[in-house]
Amino acid sequence: MKTSRKSLKQNLVLQFSIFVGLILVLISGVVFYLLSSNLTKQLEGNLRLLSGNSLKIMENRLAYLLENLENFAKNHFIINALIDPSGRNLYLPNMVQNFNSMKNIEFTAIVDFEGNLIYSSSPKSEPYSDLLSLSEALATGKPVIKLLASTGTLIMAYPIQYYNTSQGAVIVGYDIAKISEMVFDVRKNIYYQLFFGDQLIYQQNHSENENYISIAKEAGSELALLTRLKVKLISGETRSAHLVQIKNSLYTLLLVCFFFIVFSVFLAIWIGSKISKPILTLCEKIKNSSQETFQPCSPVGTNDELEELALAFDNQAKTLFERSLELRKEKDYAEAILSSMGDALIVADSQGRITTVNDETVRLLGYRKDELTGKLHRSIFEEKEGEGEGEGEDFRNVERTLLTKEGERISVLLSGSVLHEYSLERNSTKTMGLILVVKDIRERKIMDEKLRHAQKMESVGELAAGIAHEINTPIQFIGDNIQFLQDSYKDFSKILADGDRLLEVLKKGAAYEKLLDKLETSAQEADLDFLRDETPQAIAQALEGVKRVATIVQAMKQFVHPGQEEKKFIDINEAIETVLTVSKNEWKYVADMETNFDPGLPLVPCFANEFNQAILNIVVNAAHAIKEKSKEGHNEMGIITISTRRDADRVEIRIKDTGTGIPSNLQPRIFDPFFTTKEVGVGTGQGLHLVHGFIVIHHKGSLTFETETGDGTTFIIHLPLD
């Protein structure tokens, strides 16, 4: 189904109009935000100024009232009223009445030093001793100003002093709400709230239903009286009145934006018609091009930058067309190489999922290519503890087991290379995936097994004569001792027969003297004392010979025992002792054997048969090297030293000889197959090659050597403990 699309001209007009509209909306939003922010800050500044002025007026008003109170308290008639109880009623009422004529005074009272009321303009007659810490004013001689929270009355108390001693006080109560009405400037939409401490004393133009922009102003240190009273003034303006100015400005801005958008649309239509026509011509020519043939797009008839663009496009398109032909050939060539590879090839991405396989992989596994694509490459290999290729690094010739679609297990040799992507801009590489090469080694394993068996049989054949010689010696003295026991038994039989006859005669009670003499004669002829001494020794020597033969036979049985398919934990020291036993005839005539085994060595996971064969090959090579050195005139016995120890998470075995050493030009080749320095017919060149395979490949260990020409060689084996 063909979908409808807008033309280039329509897109240009639409996008230009949207762009202009978005810019105008953004500008309007910014202007609205800035206008609102500035007007709000201006309003808050005005409110702070207005609140500050109001608090100053309030401070001045209270200072004025306190000054009047001070003058009244220092009047001589007021002082006289404290010491002239009889005459004060004549003038005190008139003085208090004249003082109360000032606005906002609720009452005036005069008390003595103990707070007892002398005169009051209010009907209250109880003592004033506890009123607003009056004792503080009387004691310090300083005025006290406080708010009476219960009535909202501002109380001022001024001490009456006589000869610099407080004799009483004048107490005046003011209506603070009325004083506030005189102080605050009444404006429309402006409200005030006056607090003394936490108590609201006065408010003006405030409604709970309105939303205000307000500020709080507390009396500063310069307003001493208000600071003592903890005065706080909150003033504000209704938000609706504040927004009227912003809305009017915004309406004007939106009207300007509307006319600008209309103008922009007409401008976009004109620009679109001028730009789109040559571009559409160029697009039409590009559409007519194909992958099989190259057709130029220039000229387009504009003779400007668009014409240059068409020429540049033609140059790039021609280059890409030629390059695509080359890439197609290279792709066909690469696919031919992959198809003809004898080994399986698997390419995986950075997540480990297969992306590419060759025909040999399909044949080997039995899957189709589409079945393999997307599978984790690890899923086609049998995972065992301690196995697995390293992530993020190359590896070579790792023996693994491949799992086919039918469940068959195939032994393979696996090599892998990390696929990197190089970034020229960042001068760095990024891992793209992994390339695996899988080689089927089933036939090679069969050949290796045959080769190992042949090597074992060769070793057994070489050792057979020596073992026979080792067994012959104990067999000879076993035979000699048994012959002695046989001869001794004849003498013992004769003595026992004479003894039996003597015993029968004694039982019958007949004469026995002749039989006793005959028994004594037989004992002397047999040399009974000699038999008593030598017979136990002959038996012991025969048993020792049997034990020696049994040891040799047992060692040989362990050595030629078929190898197990799985690793087993073995005693390394005991295995080496077994090898030394079966190979003794190879080294005992040319070298002394010294061992230094670690008795605390743990059991080591090994293929016992392969380990024994590896130690045997190295020991026999050491004996041959010492024998070769003796041919050069060194007649003293050589020394073969074998030591074991634990090295962190592995076991170290050192086999050192005092032979000829390995020349430097031959050292790189000693582990190569079929390489030997021995005479023709003496060595096959497989000994150290098999040792390397057993230790390094099968046991995942390491095999190195240290050598000095003429001084000997030390082979160092490391086997992992896990």
Question: Please, could you describe this protein's structure?
Answer:
It contains 17 helices and 21 strands. With 722 residues, it is α+β, with helices and mostly antiparallel strands. The chain folds into five domains: 1-286, Beta-Lactamase (2-Layer Sandwich), CATH 3.30.450; 288-340; 344-440, 2-Layer Sandwich (Beta-Lactamase); 447-549, no CATH class; 561-720, Heat Shock Protein 90 (2-Layer Sandwich), CATH 3.30.565. The protein has a five-stranded antiparallel sheet. Strand 6 and strand 7 (199-204) form a beta hairpin. 21% of the residues are buried.
Labels describing this entry:
Beta-Lactamase; 22% strand; alpha+beta; 5 domains; 722 residues; 5-stranded antiparallel beta sheet
CATH architecture of the largest domain: 2-Layer Sandwich
Please give the CATH class of the largest domain.
Alpha Beta
Determine the strand fraction and express it as a percent band: 15-25%
Give, in spatial order, the strands making up the sheet with the most strands: 2-1-5-4-3
Give the fraction of residues assigned to helices. 40-55%
Termini, distance in Å?
66 Å
**Rg over C-alpha atoms, rounded to the nearest angstrom:** 60 Å
Number of beta-strand segments = 21
Secondary-structure content class = alpha+beta
Tally of helical segments: 17
Mean pLDDT: 76
Strand count, sense and closure of the main sheet? 5 strands, antiparallel
Return the domain count. Answer: 5
Low-confidence stretches: none
The name of the CATH topology of the largest domain is Beta-Lactamase
What best-fitting shape do the alpha-carbon axes yield? elongated
Instruction: Find the CATH superfamily of the largest domain.
Output: PAS domain
